[in-house]
Amino acid sequence: MAFGTPKTAGPSHIALDLLKEVHSPETALSIFTEKVLHKPLHLRPTSPDPNSQDARARRRLQRVRKQEKSRRRQRPKPLSAKEKRITGIYEIPKESQKYHIYVPLYRMWLGYMWEILGMVKGKQNWVTAQGAGGKFASADFHGSKLIVVRSKCVSLVGLKGIVVRDTRFTFQIITEKNELKSIPKPFAFAKSRAHNDLAIPKNHTIFEFHVPQPDLIADSSDAMSDKDISDEDMGANALVFQIHGSSFKHRAVERATKKFKQRPLPEL
User: To pair with 126 at 20 to 30 A between CA atoms, which of 73, 95, 188, 265?
Assistant: First the structure.
C-alpha cells in the first residue's frame, strides 16, 4: 500500500533541502519523489496483547481442552465403600422383596448347575464328592435355594430361601414369606438398618443345597416359569450338597479360580 503527495514539495521539507545540498535540483527532486513520497508502506496485523481479554480467553480454552483430553484417557475410579453405602446400590428395594420374582432365577441356576456337573436329561445322574466337589465349591450361588441345617444359633436352623446376593462374608436370601434375610460376617448378630432384617452369622453354619434331576424341567418355557419347585417335586433322586460357611468365606469371583483342599474342621 502506497501513499503519495503532489510531486512538488514545499521549501520547508527537510529531506528535500538535504538532498539539494549534494545533488542538483532535478536529481534531488527525483530522488525525493521516488524514495520518500512514493515509498510503499506495508501494513500487517499487530501481535495480540498478552494482557488482552482475547488472549486470556484463548489460553483458558486451550487449558480446558487439555484437561478434557487427559480426563478421557483416565479410567473412572471405582466407588469407595462409603459411597456404596450412601448410594445404596446393593440394597434391594422393598417392592422387589417378593419371593415369586426370584423363582425364575432359581430355575436358571438349576440349568447352570446341570451344565457344570455334566447332568443330562433322560439319564440317572450320579456324582461323587471327588469329581463334583471342586466344581460345586467354585460355582456361583446367585439364584440357588439354600437351607440352614446346622448353626451355632439353633433358632436359625431350618431357614430357607433363594440367594439374591453372594458376597465374601454374606449370603443374602429371600424367604417364602417375602422376607429378606442376611447372613453376614462371623459373630455379627445385629439388625439391618435398611430393612430391619435378622442377621445370621455365616461362621459355624452349615448350608444345604438340593439339585434335582434334569427331567424335572420339560422345556425352555418351563425353565422360566414362576412356579416354585418344592421338595416333593424334586423326588428322592435329587442331589444334596452341604457346605461349611467357615470354609466358604470367599467372593464368587475368587471361588471361580480357587482350588479347595481337604482339611480338618476343628469346630466339628
Answer: 265
